[in-house]
Amino acid sequence: MPEKKVALELKNITKAFGGKVIANDHVSMDIRYGEILSVLGENGSGKTTLMNMIAGIYYPDEGEIFVNGEPVTIADPKDAFACGIGMIHQHFKLVDLFTATENIILGLKEKGPYNLKKAAKRVREISEQYGFNIDPNKKVYQMSVSEKQTVEIIKVLYRGADILLLDEPTAVLTPQETRKLFDVLRRMRDAGKAIVIITHKLNEVLELSDRVAVLRKGVHIGTVETKDATVKSLTEMMVGEKVDLNIERPLPENPEERLIVAHLRVMDRNGYSVLDDVSFTAYSGEILGIAGIAGSGQRELLETIAGLQPITYGGIQYITPGTGKIELLRDLTPLQIRNLGVRLSFVPEDRLGMGLVGNMDITNNMMLRSYRKGPTVFLETKEPHDLAEKIVDDLQVATPSIETPVRRLSGGNVQKVLVGREIAAAPTVLMAAYPVRGLDINSSYLIYKLLNEQKKNGVAVIFVGEDLDVLMALSDRILVIGQGQVAGILDARTADKEEIGLLMTKGRTEDHGEEYKKHLASVRGGHHK
Amino acid sequence: MREPLFHIVRRNSSSRMRGWAVRGIAILAAVLLSGLLTFLVTGLNPLEVYSKMIQGNFGSTRRIWVLLQNTAILLIIALALTPAFKMRFWNTGAEGQVLIGGFGAALMMRFVGASLPNALLIPLELLAAIAAGALWGFIPAFFKAKWKTNETLFTLMMNYVAIQIVSWFCTLFAVPKGSGQLGILNQSTEAGWLPTLFGQKYMMNVIIVVAVLIFVFIYLRFSKHGYEISVVGESEKTARYVGINVKSVIIRTMLLSGALCGVAGFLLVCGTDHSITPNTVGGEGFTGIMVSWLAKFNPFVMVFTSALIIFMKNGAAQIATSFHLNESFGDILTGIIIFFIIGCEFFINYRVVFRKKAAKETDAPVKESTLREKASIASEAVNDKPAAEAEEDKKPLSEEEKKEVKA
Fold it and tell me: Which residue of A17, A94, A148, A364 is the best one to mutate when testing the B interface, meaning the one whose CB has the most B CBs within 10 A?
C-alpha cells in the first residue's frame, strides 16, 4: 500500500499543567490524508489536550507542528482554520434559536453580501456529498443530539477544513446513530480528508479506523495499523500491563423483592414530566442495569428514590429484609428515609458536586453520612477517621494523606472514596449513577468488582451505565429508559445490543414537542435559573 | 513560535511560609509607597508621619485602650459575620443588625433603667440586644430560605430600616427636645452601664469579645452545626444529598449571626457610648466584612486584620490633627495598605511568567493564561488534572466574582 500524504505532523509536542501534571510529553505523530486515525487512551492520558493544541485552544510548551510539510504556529482557533484544521468538540457550541445554516455561517467573514439562500445551498451540497441527513432550515432546538453533531461537522467542512478532529463523537449517540456517523466519516476519508477521532472505546477503534495512536500518561506509546490490533493488544498498550477484561456475573442467590417503584411520575420545575409512569422492582442479590441516552431521566429516577425529588404521582415501597415490613418512601427526606432504618446508599453522578465536598478532606467526607452520631453537639472524628484510613488501605486510594482535600485526588480516587463510603454504610439498596465515568480501566474494574461483592452480599444494586457492553456483561436485568419512560426491561444474559439501542430511542424519533415546549418555557421565564 | 509576552501561571503548592513572606513584602511595599506619596504630596518627612501614626495608637494608656476597644468592636462584628459567610450567605447587614441590637439595649437602659438593679438590668439589655439583632438576621434568612430572595440586597436594605428606626427614636426622645440627640443615658445613676473592671472602662468589652472569639472558633471548627454550615456553604446539593435541612441551617445560622451582631450593639451602647445615634456603628458593619474576608474566615487571624485596620484608622486621625492634613489623607494611606494586602493574594496563588523565562523552565512547566483556558470547552485537560484542580483554578476568582455579583 502506498504511503498516504502526510497532512499534519507533530514533533516533540510537550504540554504541562501546573508543575506535576504533564499532559503531553514529547509527542510525535503524523496524520495523513485519506485516513482515519484513532487517538486512543484512558481518561487523563492527554488525548484531548493534544488535539486542543492542534485546534489552537492550548499552546504547546515545546515542539513543532507541520501542516503539509510547512512549520506553522497555531495560537488560536482562527490559525487552525487557516491551516484547514477543524475540531468537533464533545459539547456543542450552537445557538438554539438559529437554524442549521445560520449556525454554520455564524462568525464567518465571507466576501459578498449576507446570503442565507446561497449558504443553505452550499450546506445541501456538502450534505449530499458526504451523505449527511440534515434540513438546513431546521432550528437547533428542534434537533436531536445526532443532528446537532451533524451541524457541527458541516460547520467545519463549510470552512474548508481538510483535517477534522472529533473528540469522543460517539459518547452521546445511540448504536444506530453511531453507525450512521461512521458511514459519513468513511465517506469523508474516501474523499481524501484526514480524520482523527479521540476515543476510549476499543470496539469503535477497531471498526472504524485505519491506524491507532495510543497515548498513556501523556506519552505516545506507539501507532499501529488497526488490522494488526486486537482489543487485548490495544488495552495492554493503553494500560501498560495485562488486564483481565472479563466481568464476573454470578447468578443471583435467593432474590427477594427489595424495592418496588410503581407508576412514578416526577415533574421538573417547569411542570414538565421527567419521569412518567415508571414501574419496576429491584431484587436483592441482583444488579439491575439502567440503560438510556444521557438525560432520559436516569438521574431523576435515582434522586427520586433517594428522596431528593418530589413525587407527583406514584410511590416507592421498600421491603425490609428479614421481617418483610413495608416502608413507603414517598414524600420523605433522605434523613427521614435513613431514620426508618432503610439502608439506601447512593453514588451520584456528580461526585464532587453532590456525593462529596471537594474542599474537605477524606475524613470530613466520611463524616457526611455519619456526623449526626454521638450525644453531644460536637463532632466525633475518631470513627470517620478510622473509616477513612480503612478505605484508603482497602481500595488503594492514591492520596498524599487522609487530610488531603478530595478535589486534589484524581477522578478514580475520588470515586473510590465515594463508593467506599457508600458501601461502608452496609446498604441493602445500592444505587450508582455512571460510577466508572472518567475512570481508568483498573479503577473501573475495581468498581465492577465492588458492585458484584455487594450483589453477593444480597444487596439490591441499581447501576446506571453508559457503556452498553459493560451493562450487558455486569447486569442481571437491564431496564431501558427513554424520555422518562420505561421502554423495556430485558434479561441481560439474552439481550441484544441492537434491541436495547432501538428501545433507547423509542418514542423520541420525531417528537420534539416536549423539548420545544421546555425550550419556550426557559426562554420566556429565565427566572428559574 | 509566537507566544504572548507573559502569561499567568497558577502555583501548584504555596507553602505557608512563602505566603506570609509575600504578605510581609506587600505591607513593606505599601508603607514605602505611602511614604513616597506623603513626601510628594505634603512635603513632610514620612518617618515623622509614621511615628505620629504609632503615637496616635500607642502614645498613651488611653490611646492603647481606645485601640483595644475599637479593635474589639470591629472584631466581634467580623466574628458575627463569619458563620454566615462560611455558609456563603453574603450578609451585608451587620451595620443594621448591630444598630438594632444596640437599640434594643438602649430601650432597656432608657425605660427600665430606673427600676431595676444593674445585676438584672444588664442581662436584660443583653437579651434585648440579642433578640433584636437575631430578628434582623432572621428576616432576610427566612425570605431567602422560603422564596430565594437575594440576601445581599435584602440585608443591605435592612440597614436603612434600622437606621431610620433609631433616627426616629432619637428625635422622639431627644434631650433637649429638638436637638435630635439622646445625650448620655442615665448619666447620673450609670444604670445599665457595663461596670469598669480593674479600673478599665473597656475591660469588660474586651473580655466579652475574647469569649465570643473562642466561641465562634469552637462552634465553626468542632460542632455539628459548624460542620453543617461548611457543607451547605460548599455545596447545597451535597447538603441535601446527606439529608441536611438547608433552609433550617440558613435560618439558624443567620439567627446566630444576627444575635452576635446584637451583642456588638450591646457593647457599643452599654459598654462604650451609653447612648445611641443613627451613626453609632459608624460603618464598622461594612468594615467587618473586609476583616472577615482578609482573614479568610479564620477567627484568630481576624484579631490581626481588625487590629491593623483600626491602627491605620487611628493613626490617620492622629496625623490629620498633628499636621493639619485633611483626614482623607489618612484614608488614602489606609487604602494603599489594604490594596496591597488584598493584591498580594494574587502573587501568593499565581505567578507571572515572561516569554524568555518560560522557554527555559523545563522542570517547572507552566500553564497558559486563563483566557485560553476559558476558550476551551470540554477539555479533557480539565478532567485530566487531579480531579478538581480545575475547580481550584477558578476559585480565587470566582469567590471574588460571586461577591461582586451579589453586591
Answer: A17
Phi-psi group of A98: left, alpha or beta (phi > 0 → left; psi -120 to 50 → alpha; rest → beta)? beta
State the pLDDT at residue B10.
66
Nearest to A167 among B230, B242, B378 (CB): B378
CA distances from A467 to A358, A442, A458, A470 (A): 27, 16, 25, 5
Residue carrying the nine cell digits 433522605: A334
Whether residue A187 lies within 8 A of chain B, CB to CB, comes out as: no
Each residue of A306-340: pLDDT tens digit? 998 889 998 899 998 888 888 888 888 888 888 88
A435 touches chain B (CB under 8 A): no
Count: domains in chain B: 1
Write out the H or E segment, with its range, that includes residue A206. helix A202-208
Flag if A354 and B235 touch (Cβ within 8 Å): yes
Distances (CA, A) of B128 to B23, B123, B124, B231: 41, 9, 6, 31
Shortest distance, CA B369 to any CA of chain A (angstroms):
9
Question: Which residue range forms the structural domain that includes residue B238?
Answer: 60-307
Distance CA A346, CA A356 (A): 12
Question: Which CATH number is B115's domain given?
Answer: 1.10.3470
Does residue B337 fall inside a structural domain?
no
The nearest CA of chain B is from the CA of A208 a distance in Å of 22
- Digit-coded pLDDT (tens) for A17-54: 765 667 888 888 888 899 999 998 877 778 888 888 88
Q: Which three cell numbers stand for residue B311?
A: 491602627
Instruction: List the single residue in B1, B223, B231 with the smallest CB-CB distance to A357.
Output: B231
Answer yes or no: do B234 and A358 touch at CB < 8 A.
yes
